[in-house]
Specification:
There is one protein chain. This protein has six helices and ten strands. It is α/β, with parallel strands linked by helices and about 230 residues long. The strands form three sheets. The chain has a six-stranded mixed sheet with strand order 4-1-5-9-6-10. A two-stranded antiparallel ribbon has the order 2-3.
Length: about 230
């Protein structure tokens, strides 16, 4: 299976200015994701999608291919991820190069391991699903069976639609949330369904220890603490 490893890293970050190339533990944040992606035996090609010249130069220095510059309209604060992936796939399709799937690796999750990435890809291939996402377990107090939405009368109803609430924590079914570390999707699902998930979504649970998804300065401080304590 030919899998494109895609690292999206636009300029103009506001939560943590310049975070994609900001030094964490003495090396650019981008390097953590790049070195894992380049080391994976399952990724046929690893490329960067960016609109920022500084990020592009650093990526090239790390050995990541940068065959194109991302258009400005795909690098705005509100730009969704799916068009960024489709842009990369179309670039290669125009060159007569095709991939069976795309593995999206966000720079904001720097501490995924090579073993975890390869395990995720192996599971995706073995289960032959439309996609695979990395997840973490939802704490019981936020389990959808214990959360509420407002009904038409302005009162609360259980988010799952059930009539009565599950009384004991031990009876709650496991629930998961995406953690942003790994997304793998079949190319035909992206192109034909315009979806990052499709109809069948496999998952792999990310170990909680040392996980961080950097979006704010508080997240950055947590990442610095993790590096310091390693």
């Amino acid at each position: 299976m030919r899998i494109l490893g895609l690292i999206p890293a636009r300029g103009g970050s506001k939560g943590v200015p310049g975070k994609n190339i900001k030094l964490l533990g003495g090396k650019p944040l981008l390097e953590y994701t790049s070195e894992i992606a380049l080391a994976s035996k399952y990724l046929s090609k690893v490329v960067l999608s960016s609109d920022d010249d500084k990020i592009i130069d650093i990526a090239k220095g790390l050995g990541v291919e940068v065959p194109f510059k991302r258009p400005a309209n795909l690098a705005e604060d509100a730009s969704p991820t799916l068009p960024v992936i489709k842009h990369a796939l179309q670039f290669y399709k125009d060159k007569g190069e095709y991939f069976d799937a795309v593995c999206l690796l966000q720079v904001i999750s720097p501490f995924r391991t090579l073993a975890f990435l390869d395990e995720a890809i192996e599971k995706f291939i073995a289960q032959d699903t439309d996609s695979l996402v990395s997840v973490q377990e939802v704490p019981h107090e936020y389990n959808p069976h214990w959360t509420f939405k407002m009904n038409d009368d302005g009162n609360l109803k259980i988010a799952t639609g059930e009539k009565s609430i599950i009384p004991r924590r031990q009876e709650l079914p496991l629930a998961y949330h995406r953690d942003g570390s790994v997304y793998i999707t079949k190319t035909n699902v992206i192109e034909e369904q315009n979806s990052l998930y499709g109809n069948s979504v496999a998952f792999l649970v990310t170990p909680k220890e040392n996980h961080v998804n950097i979006d704010t300065l508080k997240d950055w401080e947590k990442a610095e603490s993790i590096v310091k304590n390693k």
